[in-house]
Amino acid sequence: MREIGQSIIGAKEKVQKLVGIPVLLKINVGRGKSTLMKGEVTAIFPAVFTVRMDDGQSRTFSYSDVHTRNVLFLPRKD
Question: Does the chain have fewer CB atoms within 10 Å around its N or its C terminus?
Answer without folding.
Answer: N
